[in-house]
Amino acid sequence: MSKKVVLLASGGLDSTTMAYWLIDKGYDVVPLFINYGQHCVNTEYETLIEVLPKSLKEKVEILNISDVYKYSKSSFINEKNLWENEMTADDLYIPYRNILILTIAASFAQSIDVGEVYSAFINSNHAKEIDCSKEFFSKMENMLGEYGSVKIKMPFLEMSKLDVAKIGIEVKAPIGKTFSCQASSIIPCGACPNCVDRLEAIRKL
Q: Is the pTM of this model over 0.90?
């Protein structure tokens, strides 16, 4: 019997690649999609269903925690008109988002008797948030492993977006169809940290 794991999945390049990578390694994957109030939630979910391997499409679990950020002023929660409003990377910051996502995923995994959560977070050079750094993720991985029965696995943490994109090509993940824009809910803006990383990786391929 193949080992069951939970995968944090969003329809982005990294998590989509990891879905195909885990299947290639023989894992039984439970994709977990978290709605934390992001303005692009519908596009993310629709993209996720489109890009996931066929065997996983009906296995997606959805958790809605959007009320946590219902008063947030982040532009990742409240979408701005990019034609009219100026926006900086700081405007996209969501406090404690990655801490929240990882602990919720670990709690969910434990509730279904799964011992490992896979996250496709990488150490982005363009993200401004302190909780997107390699140091942060390493500490979270260790802390959750020490104080609970669920292990957090981040195999792509030391990789660049280009490294992940190359793996995506190898495992035949449809990386060109993925979506991960922070600023626009429908058409990728091309300027937010997620878009910059993604476009640079695809250009270098």
A: no
